[in-house]
Design goal:
Radius of gyration: 18 Å
Largest sheet: 2 strands, antiparallel
Strand order of the largest sheet: 1-2
Strand content: under 5%
Number of helices: 10
Structural class: mainly alpha
Distance between the termini: 35 Å
Number of domains: 2
Order of helices and strands: HHHHHEEHHHHH
Number of strands: 2
């Protein structure tokens, strides 16, 4: 398969934002955990999952291998070792984060990564904006609010309510693609 790719006979699939997120969730990994596996920052995973940045071909190749052969293909080593080992595993349903109780790597332990917050305090709004890969101006234009309102949300002088709060919850759960009407 790799030889065919290198010879230009096949192309690796291009994973969409939703597919990257699904592969990560199927592997039971947080963004930081997948980032550790792929040797990229968690923020990069966030940009891929929100559609703010395309997944590079080299990463598409790894994601293809994980999706075809199963997440049991890899085993995370201790965080301080900085390396991973390839292990044989015919089980496609094995849990990549099995044995890792640290919520920064294991989605099941983190819990909150999958939950939509009930309210959006200033820190949560900042996290959402960063998850979307946007600066304040881009965020305000995307959400349809003034830059001043975005600043006020993030400094806590005004809290989003009603339709704005519902919109933030939608963006938290589904990211930018939820508002892509093309």
């Amino acid at each position: 398969m790799l030889r065919a790719y290198l010879n230009g006979e096949i192309a690796w699939p291009k994973f969409s934002a939703d597919e990257v997120a699904q592969i990560r969730k199927d592997a039971n990994l947080t963004r930081k955990g997948l980032g550790a596996l792929l040797k990229v920052p968690a923020e990069t995973i966030l940009r891929w999952e929100s559609g703010a940045e395309d997944v590079p071909d080299s990463i598409n190749m790894v994601l293809c291998v994980i999706s075809k052969l199963g997440v049991g293909l890899f085993s995370l080593m201790k965080a301080d070792s900085g390396s991973f080992e390839l292990v044989a595993s015919p089980d496609k349903k094995s849990n990549l984060a099995q044995g890792l109780d640290d919520p920064q790597y294991n989605l099941a332990s983190a819990g909150e990564d999958a939950r939509v917050p009930d309210s959006f305090d200033p820190e949560t709004i900042k996290r959402l904006r960063r998850r979307l890969g946007m600066n304040r101006r881009e965020f305000s234009e995307f959400v349809g609010i003034s830059l001043g309102t975005a600043v006020n949300w993030e400094n806590g002088s005004v809290a989003p309510k009603g339709a704005a709060l519902a919109l933030l919850k939608i963006l938290w759960k589904w990211g930018k693609p939820a508002l892509d009407f093309n």
